[in-house]
Amino acid sequence: MADEANPETKPSQEIHVQTGASVHDLNLKNQFPRKFTLQDFLNLDPFDEDEAEQRFLTSKPTCFLVVGKPGSGKSTIAKKLAAEWKAELVNPTDLILTSIKNNTDLGKKAQDILLKGEAIPESIVAHMIDEKINSPEVAHHGYVLDGFPSQSENNFDIGQQMEMMKNWKLQPDFIINLRIPDKDLTRRRVHQKVDPISGNLYIKEMYAPNKPKAVKKEETETEEGDEEEAEEMEEERPEEPQDEFFAVIANDVVERLVIRPEDTLSYVQSSLGTFKEALLRVLEDQMANMDQSYLIELDSNLSPTILIKQLLLRLESYPIRKAAKVLRMSEPVEVNEEEAANTDHFVDTIEIEENLSSLQSRKKLSGKFKWRRSKCAFYCPVSLKDGKIVSGKPDYAASFLDKIYLMADENRLRDFLKNPRPYLRLPQPRAPCKLSILGTPFSGKTSLSALLAKKYNASVIDMKSLMEPRIKKANDELRDRVTVEATQSAIDQIKQKFREKLEQEKVKREQEQAERAAMLAETQEAQQDQESQEVRQPAEEKTELSEQEAEDKQNQNEDNFDIQKEESIVNEPIDYSKLDPNVTYSEENDITVNPDHPDIQFAIEKALEDLAKQQFNLPPSEYIKVLQDELDRIRKNRAKIDPTAANDGGWILDNFPNDSEQLNAMAESNIIPDTFLILQDSSDDSSILSKRWYQLNKDEIDQRITKRLADEAISLLVFVLSMIF
Prior knowledge:
Elements: H1 2-5, E1 13-18, H2 38-42, H3 49-58, E2 64-68, H4 74-85, E3 88-90, H5 92-102, H6 105-115, H7 122-133, H8 136-141, E4 143-146, H9 158-166, E5 174-179, H10 182-190, E6 193-194, E7 201-202, H11 204-207, H12 224-236, H13 251-255, H14 265-289, E8 295-299, H15 304-315, E9 327-328, H16 337-341, H17 349-360, E10 372-373, H18 381-385, E11 393-400, E12 403-407, H19 410-418, H20 421-424, E13 434-439, H21 445-456, E14 459-461, H22 463-536, H23 539-570, H24 576-579, E15 583-585, E16 591-593, H25 598-613, H26 620-641, E17 651-654, H27 660-668, E18 675-680, H28 687-696, H29 698-724
Parallel strand pairs: 1-18, 2-4, 2-5, 3-4, 5-8, 10-12, 13-17, 13-18, 14-17
Antiparallel strand pairs: 6-7, 9-11, 11-12, 15-16
Helix pairs in contact: 4-15, 5-6, 5-7, 10-14, 22-23, 22-25, 26-27
């Protein structure tokens, strides 16, 4: 289904489930962690590989704090310990140089201050340290903190530094205190020199070691046997191991060594005094309040090589382990912009299988060692954490805890190399729960969605319920709009009909008036003719016709009166209420229609009836907008409960999408379920769904059946009685 919607999107899995099967028969594995009890810890198998791996992934990385007087060798011990323990070295000087090199915001500020010839404030250095302590690489490897807290209180006093340290999520587990008397420390520092080219520091024992004095042999006569025996004893005597810290320095390096201003006697005494006044009491309180078994004190008069050996020997007695380093299996490759932009894709698994065999034998830790495949198979664990199923590439392979992991691109590989724990710690790695359950009515979509959501700790998204308020609002707005349009249309028709009736009435009155005028003219003409005849008639005839004429004249007068009366009626104003009682008409040709006009009500009812017959639905964009808002809400709630939860996934769509347009809109918005579950009834005539529908509506169906049987019985009885009688 997803391929038809958008060919560029990743393919989704489509699974057909038999509707008649019980949802409890589905074998679903719960991959979510549960709360461990004391009995669970007692039952842990120390030889179980998966349990041991999860214990390591959930354990806190070991963190060290190296303290001591200025010049006691803290930086040297911290560097060696970080290298041996595979931890992150947190040193203010290194952080400043790294920030300037990476052109970060704090690095830009520090560079501007240095270019002005000023000292970098402790507040900026403290923020650099704080960012480093909270970085992903420190969360996996731990840290060795050196040079903090600082005795310099430039814009950031020691109290603020200690308060910031207390707020760190990763507190120091061990405090390594390098102790040395002031006299010995002063003698070491005043003779200390620096190489101006490399910046390396050298103490006097390194650039001017004490050579043993040659002993003169007494000239005595010895026998040849004694000489041979002495030579054999010299050969059998084991050579004393040479301390690499005191390795021979080249003469040209020794010649260019200089003394730093801060190593002068006055400056050394001043710095020791400042340390005791400002920082010593704070450090002593810090060490007094911690578990003394985790306080390691070393004699700084010894060689750093001996000190680091003593320290590592002491650490072996604690139930801690070094950080597991992540190895990159291949060299970085150049990728063009098109390939870099297209990372969320599926790679040919056959090609990956061919390359995995060569990866398993690369960078072996021993002769017979072979890297194993991880549970992620060929999927990228970083993408799985983000809620996406993306295939990894052999070019971005990494090994961790004797397993191989494939990343999708350089950025994801970089994140995995910094800290692989969030991507492998339970419930990761797992495919994100992004399902869509479709099917016919009464096929069990909602029930299956609820069970799957409970198993996979997902949220069910019922689009029908979410869209119901919007659909109702849109439907009401449409009904109002249809009502207004129907009302306006009906009013226009009523006004048109009224105007037509008014014109007909006016024409009718004009015709009647013309007819009356013609009749009156004829009557008057006849009367004039009669009067003229009377004048010409003899007197005898006038006497005979006098009575008849009087009667005709009276009738004629009555006819003239009737014509004049009818003419006056025609000239009366028109009664508009007789044309339409629900319409008001003024002399200014203004027509007002009563809203309760029967034609208006009929038009509204007819329009709403036609609207009800149409299938109303919102555009797909409205559904996608609501779906995105719901996914954002689910993502925020999951982040509050579990900050390590996947950024995407954890949802199940109940009967959505419903058509291809909605599916295309989901593909355009990059919201595509990984799996579609389609519930269907494969039985004959859909008998299972029919039985399920009957069980859900049994009471209503039984009542209808009973009523139908009763009506049929009454009809049959009436028919029989009519046949008998």
